[in-house]
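Hi everyone, sorry if this is the wrong subforum. Our group has a chain we'd like a structural model of before ordering constructs, and none of us has done structure prediction before. Sequence below.
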Amino acid sequence: MKSNNKVTMKKLLFAGLILFAIVLIGFLYAYFLQSDIEKIGYVKVLNNKNRNVLYGREFEGRLVDSRGNDKLLFKFKTTDAGIDNNFTLFPRRFFAWGKNYVAYTQNLKEVILVDYKTGKEVYRQGLNERVEFINVNKEREEFVIASEKALYILKYQKKKSNEKKSSFILARIAEGKFCWPSLSCDSRYIVCGENNNKENYSATSFVMIDLQNNTKKKILSEKIDNLPLTQDYRLIFSTAISNDNKWVVISTSSSASPPYVYLMAVNLKSGTIREFSEITGLCNSPGFFISNDKYMFAQGEPEYREFGDYSSIIDPFRSKPVILDLNTGKLEIVNDVPKDINAYWPIYGNDKAIYFIDRNYQSFVPNKIFDTNIYRLKNKKVELLFQIKGGIVSYDVISR
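Answer:
Right subforum, don't worry. Here is the predicted structure as tokens:
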């Protein structure tokens, strides 16, 4: 009898081990399959009937993946001409894609967070002044917001089990009018433009704010070649800071028309300022650090023909990804992109792939945005990931 019980126990134990192995294999398979899914967040323009507005008035924020799932996260419509004008000029500045949440502003009056997994709003906060820029430190899920009067940090905080208040806290950290803020990986520094010159309020200097020491330092002046600010002044179109806080990069230009947008870099450790106007002209913002000393951006514009011999850039009119070595000043063209594709808005993913978009539109003809293709360049192979019907004004790769 005891022998039979032992045999039965062994059979049950064996069956249990087999069942556990099957569950474990299934879990691992699902995990690795899930980790291989491409996830892209994007903001799509729905309505483009107003001929006086470039991008239209209705927007959808969506999350799409390589399995074919395309989930609506938020939807809104702008309400007046003043807000339309703000969304027409660099609309990407009003959206930021974190690891788990997307931040956006509706009618420039509120900051709103939506959870990717649930598709539900988890935070909403109105401000007494207009929201003008939103950016994010993805690793720490901390959002930096510039209003017309101040800078804010929005970050997650653990709440006690008996608390009903939000898990996020919004802190006002600096007074003034700032633009294109970027938060360092360690959340210690913010680099951004600042508009505070009384002679010309449109003139933009470049500053760094040390949140640990509560200090602000001007890095680049708003002046161009010491000309009076009534004649010429600096504009800023994007900012970035390297992971080790060594380099900051801005895309900038004078106020001359048409603008000649190029890159400048500052070594924060040595104080060295490097201007790359001769090789980085026709820069299309934004760009991205692919390492601590190398910066990637898109260069060129298919329809731009006005510089002639002014620039030494080789064949600048087809937009393509390029990599700038900040130490040597060497510019490397990424030649793996087919010549019939205009590569804009490159993003360097955690999988060491380059993502970019090709927008089917003519830059100097209003209301001619039709469709957007999202590509991935990996191991010298370009793959079309998603075709979005309609123009997109914001997108990002969601970390796996």
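For your construct planning: Residues 209 and 315 are 38 Å apart (CA to CA). The chain has three helices and 28 strands.
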